[in-house]
Amino acid sequence: MVGDLLQRQVEFREFASERIGPYAAEHDREQRLGSHIVGDLAGRGYLAPFLPLERGGQAMSWTLLGALHEEIGRVCSSVRSLLTVHAMTAFAIQRWGNNEQRERWLLPLACGEVLGALALSEPNAGSDITGIEATAVHVDGGFVVNGCKKWMTIGQIAGLFLVLLKGEGGSVTLLIERDRPGLTIDPIHDVLGTRGSMLATLKFRDCFVPRENLIARPGFGNSVALSALSLGRYSVACGSVGIIQACMDASLEYARKISRFGAELREHQLIQQMVADMVTDASASRLLCREAGRMRDEQDPAEIRQTFIAKYHAASAAMRAANSAVQIHGANGCSSEYPVQRYMRDAKVMEIIEGSTQIQQITIALLAFQELGQAKSAQETLSKKPV
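User: That's the sequence. What structure does it adopt?
Assistant: Structure tokens below.
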């Protein structure tokens, strides 16, 4: 299994370096992805490789998927963002959809005939799923949707949106095609990082959606969204490892060839300290992500906690690595001629999306207290049993 992982990661790295890396700066500058990207990803079966073979996937393990997203994230976080939201949509349909929905959507999603995107965040709620305001009102034959969704990754080109809404009997999740009457899509430009991820705002005004587009039963929308977000959190964690690796690679190369104050940068001890921290953070973050992937593969319920830990550590470490990389490059690190300034902007986004760093910290602490309470309860129960 380890040999297969290493072999496939080399495959992923070569693809990312050859077909994505050369265009990453252009994606950032032009604020859109190259026209070849989706076709290249689809041609290699990378869009939704976790799907079963009969649905167009590769039945890829979560551990391998993490390695793929790490290597894509190493060269271009905007492309990795596409993979994330597309995967979340396909995963939600595979897990929560009915047979008709799977037949209709999974193969086109896997083949790149249609791109999927998760529509959760709102102007007044962010990603707080308990505070969403967009509504789905039940009518004869379906639902009428009104409201606004913002910061939709790949929203400018996605053909299918997985939309979380407030329903009359609880939360509702609907599949909404981009050509539905009553839906307008406005591009968002000039964001800080992942500038090629083609963000958009979705505005629904009396948009009718047929009942067959309902994912799961009414009231289960939050469950659908949370399961999709768990995959997204894992992807972002692995992509953050890629950013750390990219920062480390760029810093090593720069420190090797540049001299200051009579010596190569690599000979200065404070530079060595920053490089050592990057190496350590890359190794620790990668191990945390692989453990999360292993637990997902084994369907270990504790995977949720492990993924929170991996995302928290990897995203924070990516920001530290990017900050050091820019510092090592000095004034050049602030120039678009060097990629480290892009890594820094993208790393900051990693600390926000799929649950901010603060949300990860709160959740990890709450889970720790919960585990302590369960352990004490179990100990008290055992102490009361007769000998």
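The chain has a mean pLDDT of 94.
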